[in-house]
Structure formats: structure tokens, C-alpha cells
Write a structure and sequence with these properties.
Zona occludens toxin N-terminal domain-containing protein; alpha/beta; Zot_N; P-loop_NTPase; 8-stranded mixed β-sheet; elongated; Rossmann fold; 3-stranded antiparallel β-sheet
Length: 532
């Protein structure tokens, strides 16, 4: 295949060819190692099968029809021994051990081709499954200062026909070679024989600034055209590829018909392996106008996209059929009404919380009433206490809470939270350990192992950050003081009632006659009467 690379100076045409040679060098090194290990195992198996004589001859057929010719080649016993040598080749010369590097022979490709033909015959005639060997291609070029270790120089007269079969040849600045120049009117045999270069597996790269500078034979035979356009002096170019050579690669009609059109960024790691120029005079040209235009369009686009998420958007309203983004004339009034509703709900929640606190304080009064009845206090005083409790501000719940059926209570509105669930302690029951909260409910997420540790070492109890001990003590003291005052008041009322009964009995004395049977001691009351 003939590849033609064109570009203006500094466009990266030579760098593109170096990149192709570099990749081929890496593939050759991999194939050299593969063939080395494969040949060792293959030759051992062939000797074991007694087929070593098969390696001495090969039959090659060339020609067409009645003019077809068959040639038989005979080889020496050591003809393929070059495959027994392992080649340690660096892809790029480092300058320190260059004299120790041994390159593979130029005939490597041709002899591997003959060996593969023999392997095919052995597999067919002896029913074997030997693998084919991979090709290793010799490379020739005139690129200045190229440091690839496998590359060899071109023949003195640039005659590619003197190179071995399967060679990969790159001609840099092809327009400066007389036989390849457009100014050379004659057709040299070297150029004419390019028409049959595929018969021996040759590949070529011709590098020039423009297709019009090279011979028309090269333009007609090229099956791959790479054209590079360097933009703004950056280290990258626009890469355009065609299946045929284009005499006007910059024409828009040809660019539109390209097979590939993309950005080729220069591989900087390859700068050091060849000499492109004596000094780098590249000047970058920044397209400020295009940058400003793109930035402005980007800002407009961001503004337009952000408008799609606005509360009122006519475009969204039209697309969604009035479901979203439409302007509501009553939006301000609805928003104000919603704010008022939120304020009223928050106020109601605060009032309910205050009401629950008053219920707690008034709940102690029935207990005082029961204690007073037990001590014999006056029912009228109890009525006064109950009327005082009724006069206190109380917020009635929406649903009556039955303490005997606590699971049936379902509040209509969310009750105000008066307490938070906290850890209270651990309990051991039937060999199981579990934690409970302040009302005795099991905490299922608590670790049983932590409960066992706490029961074994009670002094290791976690600190309660949520309980207000001081407030509880004050409430207990207030409750005790209220209980003591109520008890004193009930005691005073009981004593006053007893004295009133005594006075009433003294005002209305009653005579009790007690008959004493004979032979019985005198009554205690009789003795006291005799003393008086």
C-alpha cells in the first residue's frame, strides 16, 4: 500500500510518519519474541515426529493459467536457525549500549514466509495443527536523525527494489528526489515498478508539502492520503484522510468527501527521536474573536437554560399545555394567605403546649381531693377546690384519651412533642438482656452485649444529656410542699369538726343506763363517777 502524507511546513507530516514507524517497531519486537518461543517448541515437535526433512524444501507457484510456473526451493539444514536466536532490541536508541544491539536480519520476513508455507504443507499432509509464525518487517527511510533502532537507511539510488521482501519504506521530502518529482518528465523504472509493489508485500510512505509536487504515478497509485492542516500554530493539526490522493486537499468539496476528519495532537514523546528542524520558530495565534463569540453564546445559553427552571415561564407553560410555568394572577394573595395560615398553626401549637402544662398542674388536685375525703374533710371545701381547678385555662383535646385503651387513641392533629425518647436502663429476663427507655418500652436497636456489660458493671452507665435533674427536683419539692399544705389544711378541718361534735354532744347530754350483773366488777365509768 502507498500512503501519501501532505502538509505545509510545521503541520506534522514527518511526525505522522515517525509515529507509524514507531508503532511498527513495537509490533516487530513483540513478534520477534513470539517467533522465538514458537520455533523452539515447533522444531522439537517436528523432530519428534521425524519430519525434519520437510524443512529442506518448499514449493512456490507463480503465474496465471497456462503460464503458471511452479518453483521448488531447497534449503540448508541451518536455513531457519536465525529463529533460535533471541533478539534484545530497544525500540529507541539510548546512545549508551548502541554497539551491543544486534538487529534482526533483513531476510527475516522472506524466510518466515517460506517457513509458513512449509508449516501449511505439514499440517495438510500429516494432519497436524502447527501455528503460523508472525511477520517481522524491515524498515528503510531517509528521515533525518531518526533514532529507531530497527530502521535502516535507503539504498544510495533510492531504489526500493534492492530492499528485501515485505519492507516498509518511507521517503521524506519526496519532491526533492529527482525520480519522484513532478518536474522529472520521464518515468523511471523505479517509479514504474511501483505498480507491482504489492506482489512482494512492500509498503510505502511518501511525504511532501503538496500532491502537485510529486510524480503523477505516485498520486495515481496512492491508496491512502493523509492531509494535515495546522491551526493557529498550536501543537495539533486537523487530520483529513481519503482513500485516494486528492490533488486539491484544501478544497471544501474534497474535505466534505473525506473518510475521516478529526484532530491530530502531536505525540510529544516522539520529538526527541528525530530531527525536524534546527530551531523551533512556531508562533501561536489565538483566535480571540472566536473565543469571545463562543463565550457570549455560552453565557446566553446558560441564561436561557436557567430560565427554564423559573417559577413563571411562558415557553414551559406553552409546551406543557398550561400545567407548569404559567403566571398565576392570584399568586401573591395565595402566598400571603399561606403565610397567615402557617402563623396561625404555629400559634395553635404553642397554645396546645401551654394547655398540656396546665393539665399537668391541675391533675394533682384530684389527688388532694381524695386524700381530704379519706381524712374526713368537709365536702364544701372540696367543691371550692374543684371549682378553682375548673376556672384554670384548659385546652380540651380533639379526642378523649382513655387510659384503659391507650392503643385506640389516634389524634386528629399532630400533638406537640413534650418529651424525647432516651435510654433509661437495661433489664435481664429469662437469660436475655435488653434496653428500655424512660417509660419502660424495649429499645430493639440496642446491643444486648452492651446491656450485659452495663448490668455487670453498673458504674459504667452512660451519662444522660437530656434529663433536667434540677427541674425535676424543683418540681418534686413543689409537689411535696403542695401535699403538706393540703394535709395541714385537712388536719385543721378534721380537728375543728371533732370539737364541734363534742360541743354539740355536751349541749344535748344523754343518759346511758348500764345494768351490772351480780358478782361482776364495776364499770370504769362508775368508778370515775364515784370520784366526782
Amino acid at each position: 500500500m502507498i500512503t501519501f502524507i501532505s502538509a505545509t511546513p510545521g503541520g506534522g507530516k514527518t511526525l505522522t510518519a515517525v509515529d507509524m514507524l514507531y508503532k511498527l517497531s513495537k509490533e516487530n519486537v513483540k513478534n520477534l519474541n513470539f517467533n522465538y518461543y514458537l520455533f523452539k517448541s515447533t522444531i522439537e515437535k517436528i523432530i519428534e515426529l521425524g519430519l525434519k526433512d520437510e524443512l529442506r524444501t518448499v514449493t512456490i507457484t507463480r503465474g496465471q493459467g497456462l503460464h503458471k510456473k511452479t518453483s521448488i526451493f531447497f534449503f540448508a539444514d541451518d536455513y531457519f536457525d536465525f529463529l533460535l536466536e533471541q533478539y534484545h532490541i530497544n525500540i529507541v536508541l539510548d546512545g549508551e549500549y548502541d554497539e551491543l544491539v544486534k538487529n534482526y536480519p533483513e531476510y527475516y520476513f522472506e524466510r518466515v514466509y517460506y517457513l509458513n508455507e512449509i508449516i501449511k504443507r505439514i499440517n495438510k499432509e500429516h494432519n497436524q495443527k502447527f501455528m503460523d509464525f508472525k511477520h517481522v518487517r524491515a524498515m528503510f527511510t531517509n528521515i533525518n536523525g531518526l533514532l529507531l533502532s530497527q530502521v535502516r537507511p535507503l539504498p544510495p539510488d533510492f531504489d526500493w527494489r534492492r530492499t528485501p521482501f515485505g519492507a516498509f519504506i518511507a521517503y521524506d521530502e519526496a519532491q526533492l528526489i529527482e525520480i519522484f518529482s513532478e518536474e522529472y518528465k520521464k518515468v523511471d523504472p523505479i517509479v514504474r515498478d511501483l505498480t507491482i509493489h504489492r506482489h512482494k508485500s512492500y509498503d510505502f510512505i511518501f511525504i511532501s508539502q503538496d500532491p502537485g509536487l510529486v510524480h503523477k504515478y505516485i498520486r495515481k497509485l496512492a491508496s491512502h492520503h493523509i492531509h494535515l492542516i495546522n491551526a493557529f500554530g498550536f501543537e495539533q493539526s486537523v487530520r483529513i484522510e481519503w482513500a485516494t490522493c486528492q490533488e486539491q486537499p484544501n478544497a471544501l468539496r474534497n474535505i466534505a468527501r473525506a473518510e475521516y476528519n478529526g484532530i491530530y495532537r502531536f505525540p510529544k514523546q516522539l520529538y526527541r527521536i528525530y530531527i525536524s528542524t534546527t530551531a523551533n520558530t512556531r508562533v501561536k495565534r489565538y483566535p480571540w474573536k472566536k473565543i469571545a463569540l463562543i463565550s457570549a453564546l455560552g453565557c446566553v445559553g446558560l441564561y436561557g437554560v436557567s430560565g427554564l427552571f423559573a417559577e413563571n415561564n411562558a415557553l414551559v407553560c406553552m409546551v406543557t399545555g398550561g400545567n407548569y410555568g404559567c403566571i398565576d394572577p392570584d399568586a401573591a394573595a395565595k402566598k400571603e394567605a399561606k403565610n397567615e395560615q402557617d402563623k396561625s398553626e404555629s400559634k395553635t401549637a404553642n397554645d396546645s403546649k401551654d394547655g398540656s402544662a396546665s393539665d399537668t398542674s391541675s391533675a394533682s388536685e384530684p389527688a388532694d381531693k381524695s386524700k381530704t375525703e379519706k381524712n374526713g374533710t368537709n365536702p364544701l371545701d372540696d367543691n371550692d377546690a374543684s371549682s378553682a381547678a375548673v376556672s384554670a385555662p384548659v385546652v380540651l383535646p380533639e379526642q378523649i384519651y382513655d387510659y384503659s385503651k391507650p392503643y385506640d387513641f389516634e389524634p386528629v392533629s399532630m400533638p406537640a412533642v413534650a418529651n424525647h425518647r432516651v435510654f433509661s436502663g437495661c433489664v435481664s429476663f429469662e437469660g436475655k438482656h435488653f434496653a428500655v427507655d424512660q417509660q419502660g418500652t424495649i429499645i430493639k436497636q440496642f446491643s444486648a452485649g452492651d446491656c450485659k456489660k452495663l448490668l455487670d458493671k453498673s458504674y459504667n452507665r452512660p451519662f444522660d444529656y437530656f434529663g433536667n435533674r434540677q427541674q425535676q427536683v424543683q418540681q418534686q419539692q413543689q409537689t411535696n410542699e403542695q401535699s403538706d399544705s393540703a394535709y395541714q389544711q385537712a388536719l385543721i378541718q378534721a380537728i375543728a369538726y371533732q370539737r364541734a361534735e363534742q360541743l354539740r354532744k355536751s349541749e344535748n347530754p344523754q343518759l346511758n343506763v348500764e345494768q351490772i350483773p351480780l358478782n361482776q366488777p364495776k364499770s370504769e365509768y362508775m368508778q370515775s363517777a364515784n370520784r366526782h
